[in-house]
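Fold it.
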Amino acid sequence: MEKLQTLGLILFGMAVFVWRMVQKMRDTTRQEQQERPATRVPLPSTSFDELLKQMQQQNARGNAPTSPATTPGGRQLPHEVARPARTQEQPAARPVSQERRATSVSLERAAPVARRNTGMDHSEPASQPRQPRPSTPADSARRSALNARLRSPAELREAFILSEILKRKFE
């Protein structure tokens, strides 16, 4: 019996809740109707095709000239023209292709150029000491002049710089 009383109390509470919500809805609707009266716009009596024809006729006639815009005081507004946008493009320049032309060169490595025989006999072992060349009086005179020049520091510095310049890259 106690369960039926609890169930009845819950149903009664739900009924009161629904009744209050309906009352609030009616009050809100009545208040909105007082604030803004309902104005009904009558639907046009013409069909869509007739309206379309009217719009096409208006477009064919063009827009009617409008009077110039004025300020509230009656003065005419200044007519402003927008400056053309600046662009970084250079359409006058002709585009040049960055692609290389196809070549008819073979991609295989070229064979090294064959060198002729020097005519020297290489049958002797390379470990034998070389025989000094016999010196002539002109050679000894050149050597003594060169030794004299290399004794001064300025000449020695120039000789070192020249040797660095004339030396091969990899030795």
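The chain is about 45% helix and 0% strand.
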